[in-house]
Amino acid sequence: MLPEGNDNVSEERPPSRRTPGHGPSLGLVVTLIFSGMVLGLLLALFATQSPWLPRWGQAPLYDEALITALVERASPAVVEVSINRLTAVERGSGFLVDTEGHIVTNQHVVANPGELTVLMADGRTLEGTLLGTSRADDLAVLKVDAQEVAGIAPLSLANSDDIRLGQLAVAIGSAFAQFNSVTVGVVSGTQRSQTSRLQQGAGGTVFRPLPELVQTDAALNPGNSGGPLLDRDGRVIGVNSAVQLEGNSFDVSIQTGVGFAVSSNTLRDILPELMSPGEFLRPWLGVSSRPLTRVQFRYLDVDVEQGVYVTLVCAGSPADISGLRGDRFNLRPSGRGDLITAIDGNPVVEVSDIVTRLNDLRPGDSVTLSVIREKQHREVDVILAPWGVCSP
Fold it and tell me: Active-site positions?
């Protein structure tokens, strides 16, 4: 009996009137399923291998196991350096470079006198002694009792010439007095140059480029200075200096997200010198200079548009003895000053090119400068001397 009002309703469905070709065939369905499976497998494999794509449930930016293992190995050799004075305590970082108790740090960390103490990773506080310093390189070496650091593996130095852009960079140090803080980034630049202040007095302020710096985006903050910048193998590629160029000043209290470290090769070259008390003095010419714009080069009316224009020759310096000339100008150079275009045949574009060459030499060595003076090309031989006080 059918329900009232549904006389046309039947419990049997009419046969399908679809004709062949209007629906997917079995072969097509199988092909689509197989293609989807292959595509899914490829995406899963790519996501597993690529550092840029996150895995399900996590988004690692680096190999966490590698970083944690690296930090566990290196941290015991990283220390906090404190200079205790009557009015304040200044802190920086450092690291052991051998089993004899030698600790590397920045020169600006220990520049002000005071009681020097070293905080170890295990919480012990050791008395430290300042040995050698180099203002020109912003490096210094401290010494603690070798017996106190027995069993702690020192950090080894990598060859900074082998650094590649984009490689892993790990900084460890007491950022804002937070002991053994870790930041991770990459090497974002090599062969960089920043300026440090070496002298300030009656003769004015003298600056010197710090060449061959390693640039990193690993966060460096006050307190990181002197700590190690490490590669993926835990080797030191640089000594974090947190150099910030701000109006031609050397300031570690202001950072803009780009940090700099003194290269490991610079440290290696002078490390034996720094293990003896006293200041290590780089050779110098004894000149000050300023970069010229293209328009200012035209005022010189010379056949080049690059070089270092001498503005001041320090009295009694190697440059003074050799007869170099300076030209203190405001906007328009007179051309009476010397334009240094090469040193020992190597082209000079900026002051850091001269400093890089001088860093390979020692006081007493000689160099040949190619200069242009009053439109005339000449060669000037200079016998280098230890860095001295510049007076006009």
Answer: 108, 138, 225
